[in-house]
Amino acid sequence: MEMNDKITVVALDRNPKTHPLFKLNICEKTLILFAKNYHDLAKKVLDIIPSCILIDLGNPEIKNIAAVHETRKETLSPLIAYNDVTNEDEMISSINSGADLYLKRDISAQEWLARISALVRRSRIEHQAKDHIIRLSDNLAINISKNIVIKDGVTLPLRSKERDVLLYLMKNANRYVPIEEILANVWGYLKTDKPEYVRLYVTYLRKKLEPDPSKPQYLLTDKGVGYMLKGIGSKTRKVIGQTY
């Protein structure tokens, strides 16, 4: 990563004005956006696709580790958890829940920037090394490693579960996959009493993939059988299956 690349950071902090990074909000190379609450954080994560996410575990308005876990389900962006006083149990819990790093809140702004830059740099290098772009047509592509769909030049972020459903259909492209098979492999359900989950996420995906979601060209339905994703060759399916 070239260090003149813009880094966008979204932070959820109990009191942004006292955070060491607050005064760097207009930094030339790093944009720091403080979320008002967890709902605002979740919205910014999906809308902006930030370079890095910061979550204050000492914030009384959130469910601490649960906020890390829920955020990680929605994004692959680097995530740093922090608190006033660090302890090993909280560190282990936060890392196990999806944080990439656990820090003390009152480190200097320079150390915050150094830690964020290093984490973002490693993340971008990893993504460049395994950047899989699947092109379904001239104006439609899926970037798996970045969790995005690019349609007509517009970038559309994928939710975590949307990505999981899409990945499974990509691995099994050009055949109708039964709903119960999708439930078992994406949600872990062995029973078939939640077919509405699959139908809901297929609806979400069609809005992002299809020129006209009411007349799907790529994500097809065979009533009583399941769903099929068209347009992916056998070599691409093999690469996806080996990598993800």
Tell me about this structure.
There is one protein chain. By secondary structure, the chain is α/β, with parallel strands linked by helices. The protein has eight helices and twelve strands. It has helices spanning 38-48, 65-74, 88-96, 109-129, 160-171, 179-187, 195-209, 234-243; strands spanning 7-12, 30-34, 52-56, 79-83, 101-104, 133-137, 140-143, 148-151, 154-157, 177-178, 219-222, 226-229. It has a five-stranded parallel beta sheet, sandwiched between helices. It is elongated. The mean pLDDT is 85.
Q: Given the structure, what is the number of helices?
A: 8
Helix content: 25-40%
Total E-strand runs: 12
Query: What structural category characterises the helix and strand content?
Result: alpha/beta
Major sheet attributes = 5 strands, parallel
**How would you describe the shape?**
elongated
Cα(first) to Cα(last) distance is: 24 Å
List SSEs in N-to-C order.
EEHEHEHEHEEEEHEHHEEH
**Poorly predicted residue ranges:** none
Keywords:
alpha/beta, 4-stranded antiparallel beta sheet, 21% strand, 244 residues, 8 helices, 5-stranded parallel beta sheet, elongated
Topology:
Blueprint: E1 7-12, E2 30-34, H1 38-48, E3 52-56, H2 65-74, E4 79-83, H3 88-96, E5 101-104, H4 109-129, E6 133-137, E7 140-143, E8 148-151, E9 154-157, H5 160-171, E10 177-178, H6 179-187, H7 195-209, E11 219-222, E12 226-229, H8 234-243
Parallel strand pairs: 1-2, 1-3, 3-4, 4-5
Antiparallel strand pairs: 6-7, 7-8, 8-9, 10-12, 11-12
Helix pairs in contact: 5-7
